Amino acid sequence: MTLNGLSVFYGENLAVRDVSFGVAANRITAIIGPSGCGKSTVLRSLNRMNDLIDGCRVIGDVAYRGIDIYAPDVEAVEVRRRIGMVFQRPTPFPKSIYQNVVYGLKLAGIHDARDDRVEHALRQAALWDEVSGRLDSSALGLSGGQQQRLCIARALAVEPDVLLMDEPCSALDPIATARIEDLMAELSERLTIVIVTHNLAQAARASHDTAFLTTEVDDHGNRTGVLVEVAPTDRLFAHPIDERTEQYITGRFG
Hints:
The chain contains ten helices and ten strands. By secondary structure, it is α/β, with parallel strands linked by helices. The chain has a single domain (about 1-250), classed as 3-Layer(aba) Sandwich (Rossmann fold), CATH 3.40.50. The strands form two sheets. It has a six-stranded mixed sheet, sandwiched between helices.
């Protein structure tokens, strides 16, 4: 995927300005930065989730496999099938484990081999061995980490090419977080992953590339997110080019 001159407005407020960078295939790209810098706004722009927010307006290009996903003839539903999303807090539906995974298939109009697809998705999410004997049980009875992996399975069921993850471990304990990070590493062998995280240690551990955003404040106190730099993770954390990046990753602001 490629972002070129991405700017996002909420009403008259410019949330992020002129963000441009590439997302490499089969790698994990982390987006980091202080609160309010537009990390989640940029992430939601990658599969048109911002379309669901009243008054949101996107300017610039977001290309997936060379196609502008905001072109008039491109359907948002199809974009979201190919570019799935997992949210900050686990969001299982008050249905069975099985029906949670099937839900995504129904939305995508996929009716064939559902049992096989459910098993495959749960295996990809490293959850099958834990739930295979109770697929008809409520998903709400799972632990927080299991619920998040179920949400990942739900996203994987429609076989996306890209998976967006918005702080997927912020509500989880360290053990569950480690499971999700291990799962991300496995999935990146066949998927492209973009993760927003406030946890710098997680970005350093889990990602291949990192984009750092910060905020600029104008004379009227309006805050706008801007991209400072993007680089391979090990290089960005060890030898940042911009002084603002160094100050952020060393804890001097943010």
